[in-house]
Amino acid sequence: MAFRRTLAAATLALTTACATTSQVKPVPVATTEAPAPAVPAPVAETKKERDMREVFAQAVAAFDAGDYAKAEEGFREVVDKAPQSLNAQFNLGVIAERQGRIADAQAAYEKVRFLEPGHVPTLLNLGRLYRVQEKYEDAIALYEEGLKVKGREHEASLLNNLTVAYRLAGKHELAEATARRVLARHPDDAEAYKNLALVYYDQGKYRLAELVLANARKLDEKDPGIYNNLGMIYLKLEDRPRALAQFQKAVSLDERFAPGYLNLGAMALAWRDYAGAERSFSKAVELEPGSSEAWLYYAYALDGQKGRDAKKGLAAGEAFEKVLSLRAEQPEALCGAGWAYAVERAGWDKAEGFLQRCKDLGSTSAQDKQMIDSKLQGIAAMRKTGQPEAAPEENAPNPAAVGGSGSMLDKVSDETAPREGAPADAPGESGAAPVDGAAASPEQGGPAAEPPAEAPRAE
Predict the structure, then answer these.
(1) C-alpha gyration radius of the chain
(2) Local structure of residue 239 (DSSP, 8 states)
């Protein structure tokens, strides 16, 4: 469901959000896309209201220009003077999410929810935050509560997102039933078909998933999420050239489609094309700065190049630390940071701390602990002899393999384009709900420790 906007502004990045004026409650219209800017209806306004409208408009313009600091300042001014402004408060959450400040984004969305429990854009964005933190039961409870609000019982966007939350929680029967509930009322809902296909994907019914996605493609040929998920199916069917073509098609349709870059990077990483992987993952973290997964694989790509360029190792260490800022004590990031920083004297202090923490993990094998002891002894010896740096070790464990859980090529995207994951591209007075399922990321896991030697090439 979307809301009429009476102030020009573009849609927000990972929610189909629309901008309106700074009135407390937006006026609904029948569309799921951001409508063209509408002319405000003539109403009597006080000077204060006109001033707030102008401040809001300037904040939207600042967001459009990428000046998030100025946009945040403007929206905070509106909230300070009009605490009941749902739209300004919602946009503060969007900005925080866009900047990767997940806790701040969640707090902002919770304030909107307190003021209006049935505010769909807030329920969707907040639910997404729960999902990316793997709080699936919280997301389920949030969507189910939203559906109990009068007039929201059949809200397709909430049902689609509930389908995803059920699926991610492993409740496949409920997920399938919810997707079919949407299709029973909205037979042309491409998102429901996409979600249903992913339910089958999870259960290994790849050909059936492909068939269902074909129905979704007929309804929306320009949805990058459809091609991305087809790519995941073809990977499972071991048709890598066809999978690569689907991922490339996804990002060609939407250059801001983060899942496509994640999966292109995964394919490059698996083939040890670390430079290519770095390019794809750098785009992914730019688009989704709050995604610990994107940062983790970006770190892997950098780490793979440290043998030729020690500076890449230090950059990898910083990327692993970014993961830890988003997900404290993440095993792969802890161990990866230790080995990455160990590549050069400038990183030894951090390397020692992270390697010790890695060694103390219950998941670290006895062999890895021996390697860590050897590395720590080597660093200590080099400190004494005054050697400028430690030579990169070819036998150092791949950080993806330390506590890892599989190949990223086995992941599947749960979301269509930036309609639902991170915040939108331009804050609006209130947003139309994203109608896709889950966050744009495949399931957890690390890249293969022993990928093939050659990188795939586009046809």
Answers:
(1) 23
(2) -
Q: What's the rounded mean pLDDT across residues 151-178? A: 96
Q: Spell 94-113 as b/e; 16+ CB within 10 A means b.
A: bbbbbbbbbebbbebbebbb
Specify the residue for token string 């919770």: 110
Whole-angstrom distance, CA of residue 435 vs CA of residue 15: 8
Q: Residue 218: its pLDDT value, please?
A: 96
DSSP strand pairing (2-4 vs 27-29):
antiparallel
Residues 6 or more apart whose CB falls under 8 angstroms from that of 3 comprise 18, 20, 26, 27, 28, 29, 428, 429, 430, 431, 432
Distance in angstroms (rounded) separating the CA atoms of residues 297 and 303: 10
> Alpha-carbon distance 62 to 57, whole Å?
9
Contacts of 32 (CB under 8 A, 6+ apart): 1, 2, 16, 157, 432, 433, 435
3-class SS at 132?
A: helix
Phi and psi torsions of 56, nearest 5°:
-60, -45
288 and 425 Cβ atoms separated by less than 8 Å: no
Distance from C-alpha of 426 to C-alpha of 302, rounded to nearest angstrom = 31
Joined together, the tokens standing for residue 232 give 């995941």
**At which residue do the structure tokens 């502004």 appear?**
9
By CB atoms closer than 10 A (0-12, 13-18, 19+), residue 339 is buried
Q: CB within 8 A of 17, min separation 6: which ones? A: 11, 34, 94, 121, 423, 424, 426, 427, 428, 430, 431, 432
Read off the pLDDT of residues 323-369 as tens digits, 9 standing for 90 and up: 999 998 999 999 999 999 999 999 999 999 999 999 999 999 999 99
CA separation (Å) from 22 to 11, 90, 304? 16, 11, 49
pLDDT over 90, % of the chain:
65
- Interatomic CA distance for residues 94 and 432, integer angstroms: 13
Tell me: the pLDDT tens digits for 209-218? Answer: 999 999 999 9
Number of Cβ within 10 Å of residue 201's Cβ equals 22
pLDDT of residue 384: 86
Q: In whole numbers, what is the pLDDT of the chain averaged over residues?
A: 79
Q: What is the pLDDT of residues 50-96, one digit of tens each?
A: 888 899 999 999 999 989 999 999 999 999 988 888 999 999 999 99
Q: Distance between CA 107 and CA 318 in Å, rounded? A: 27
Lowest mean pLDDT among 15-29, 70-84, 248-262, 354-368: 15-29
Q: What is the Cα–Cα distance from 231 to 353, expressed in whole angstroms? A: 40
